[in-house]
Structure formats: structure tokens, C-alpha cells
Amino acid sequence: MVVFAGQGDARRSMSLLWRSAGGGAARPGPKPGLTVDAIVRAAVAVADEHGMAALSMRAVGERLGRTAMALYTYVPNKAELVDLMYDDVLGELPGGYPSDAGWRPALASWAADVRAFYLRHPWVLQVSQARPVLGPHEFAMLETLVRILRGTGLDAAELRGVVGAVTQFVRGAAGAVADVRRAARETGVSDEEWWFTRSPLLEEFAGGLDERYPMAAWIGEADPPAADDRTPYLERDAERTFAVGLRVLLDGIAASVARSVG
User: Fold this and answer.
1) Are residues 120 and 44 in the same domain?
2) Residue 252 domain-assigned?
3) In which band, very low, low, confident or very high, does the pLDDT at 60 lie, cut at 50, 70 and 90?
4) Based on the domain organization, do 120 and 242 belong to the same domain?
5) Total number of domains in the chain
6) I need a labelling partner for 105 at 20 to 30 A (CA). Which of 31, 133, 162, 187 fits?
7) Taking the model in full, what pTM does it have?
């Protein structure tokens, strides 16, 4: 399921997104029984617990003990609500990282924090990056990353590509783990059970794989997981992939920096 941001009324969405950053006027009159913040928090809780597919104005209203119609005074529709949810949870991310040791450890910490954030809120990964939300926390996330990367000394054109590569890598790495967890939850079959069922059948119907695909067999035998590790195998593999991929990506950025200096 993919959700595209910015599908609601543009003026109302932008007003709601920037209300807490001084961009929207306060509502006149008596203090309302509900608030936009309360609705957004309830919507995030629904998505965290049950996934994006379960999100509806009715589900959020039920969580608040209200009808869906009661929410529309504050948030016009689900489309605007998704924008608000997305930007709201981005506010959990740290706004700065120590630069004493240089850009590399700061960027590694940022990547780890963002990956962990995505895994706390896996529904965020279903909000397409094709169109930005254009909220304050989305801008703050970009500001933090660019500030770290400015320490490389690369020019703006080069850094724009680096920002894209880093964000796409972290998002993809988190998505791999989120998919593993969702597969086990939605199918009721663990990774181990899935492989236990299919491995003997693969040997039965496609015998001689080692000879036919020696490179695949070779890389598959490398660094087997510890037998006493209780983390699902595919999650362990994703952890290793993230660590190796991040190191290679940082090495590539460092090589670009060295090339620009030379």
C-alpha cells in the first residue's frame, strides 16, 4: 500500500502543518473539546498498532471516543491527516549531532537513528517520497542531514546527490526489516518455518544448485548466523546488510571528498 502526500486541500494542509511553527493563526472562541494535536496523536497510535490500511477518520474518532464527523472541524479529511501524521512523527528525530569527530560518525549516528525511527513507525515507509509533505519537521530532518554533510566540504550539487543516496539507502534498509516483520505477522508463518518448508523441496526439485549457481552458493555460505541468536534470520541478515552497506556508502562519500580535495 502506497500513500501519496499532499492529496488534500493545499491551503488547509499547509496551514495545519505550520500551525505550531508560527505559520497558522489560532482558532478564535472558547477552547475546543478536541485539538488537532490530539487527533494526530490518536491517528499515529492507530497506524503504529494496526498499520496504514487500518487508518480512517472513523477509527481515529473511535479511539478518541468521538464520531468521525466530530473530527472534520479540525482536520478536513484523511488526506490532510496523513500529511500531519507524517510530519508530526518526524519531530522525534534528533535535531543535531556532535561534529567534533567529523562528518562520518555524525552521519553514521544519523543513519542509525533514522532507521530505528522507521522501524518504530513502519507505516511512514508507505508514504511515497514522490511528493514531499513540506512540513516543518520534514524540513528540519533535511536541515540536520545537510548540516552534517556540509562538513565534507563537497559543493551543493554533489551534496544533493549524496543526500538522495543516503536517504534512499536508509529508507530501503528499514523497509527490508519492516517487510520481514509484516510478512511473519500477516501470514502467521515465521521466517524459519517458511525456509524449513521450502528448503527440502528446493533440493528435491532443483538438485545440484551448488554446481549450477556456484557464486550464489558461495556467498550464501559466508558468515553463518550464530546458532543461539533468537533474532529471525532475515532480520539478522538485514542488520548485517545495513552495517556493510552504510560502511561502503560512507567510504564512497570519503572517496568523493578526497577526489574533490585532490
Assistant:
1) no
2) yes
3) very high
4) yes
5) 2
6) 133
7) 0.90
Domain boundary among 39, 64, 90: 90
Please check whether residue 210 lies inside any domain of the structure.
Answer: yes
Asked if residue 233 lies in contact with residue 195, where contact means CB atoms within 8 angstroms, the answer is yes
pLDDT of residue 190: 87
Q: Letter for the amino acid at 153?
A: G
Residue 148 lies in a domain: yes
Retrieve residue 183's grid coordinates: 510478512
Instruction: Report the C-alpha gap between 122 and 106 in whole angstroms.
Output: 24
**Helix (H), strand (E), coil (C) string for the chain:** CCECCCCCCHHHHHHHHCHHHCCCCCCCCCCCCCCHHHHHHHHHHHHHHHCHHHCCHHHHHHHHCCCHHHHCCCCCCHHHHHHHHHHHHHCCCCCCCCCCCCHHHHHHHHHHHHHHHHHHCHHHHHECCCCCCCCHHHHHHHHHHHHHHHCCCCCHHHHHHHHHHHHHHHHHHHHHHHHHHHHHHHHCCCHHHHHHHHHHHHHHHCCCHHHHCHHHHHHHCCCCCCCCCCCCHHHHHHHHHHHHHHHHHHHHHHHHHHHHHC
User: Are 184 and 216 members of one domain?
Assistant: yes
Cell (9 digits) for 66: 468521538
| pLDDT beyond 60 at 27 | no
Q: What angle do CA 239, 178, 142 make, to 5 degrees?
A: 85
Looking at the structure, tell me whether residues 146 and 256 fall in a common domain: yes
